[in-house]
């Protein structure tokens, strides 16, 4: 994967994932929180979500993806935490309509069995 050319959004995702590698990363993309790679596989298995894939770059190939609507996020996070998993929530911290280039995002909360 290191040699693959990822989209700017996927490069941003990977940066946050490296910082929170022990958590399932909920990455806000518009009206959904998306999970990719192993997080998508695990969330799909644990939550019964559809596992799909998306191409996020010229040479990166298909990337496993699972997502949940933003308005349902809290319920899914609670279920994962109830199963003993840690979840990092990455929000869009600027209005996508006003963004020049990639939308700014930041991890705004980490929820774990010890903090829930």
Automatic annotation (TrEMBL):
SUPFAM superfamilies: DNA repair protein MutS, domain I. Gene3D superfamilies: DNA repair protein MutS, domain I. The keyword Calcium does not apply. The keyword DNA damage applies. Residues 8-115 form the DNA mismatch repair protein MutS-like N-terminal domain. GO terms for molecular function: ATP binding; mismatched DNA binding. One of its GO terms (biological process) is mismatch repair. Keywords: ATP-binding, DNA damage, DNA repair, DNA-binding, Nucleotide-binding. This is DNA mismatch repair protein MutS-like N-terminal domain-containing protein. It comes from marine metagenome. The lineage of its organism: unclassified sequences, metagenomes, ecological metagenomes.
């Amino acid at each position: 994967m290191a040699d693959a050319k990822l989209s700017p959004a996927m490069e941003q995702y990977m940066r946050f994932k490296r910082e929170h590698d022990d958590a399932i990363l909920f990455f806000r993309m518009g009206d959904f929180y998306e999970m990719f790679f192993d997080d998508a596989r695990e969330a799909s298995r644990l939550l019964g979500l559809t596992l799909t894939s998306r191409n996020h770059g010229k040479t990166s190939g298909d990337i496993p993806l699972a997502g949940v609507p933003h308005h349902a996020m809290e319920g899914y996070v609670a279920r994962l935490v109830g199963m003993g998993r840690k979840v990092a929530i990455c929000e869009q911290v600027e209005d996508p309509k006003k963004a020049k280039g990639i939308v700014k995002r930041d991890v705004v909360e980490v929820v774990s069995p010890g903090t829930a």
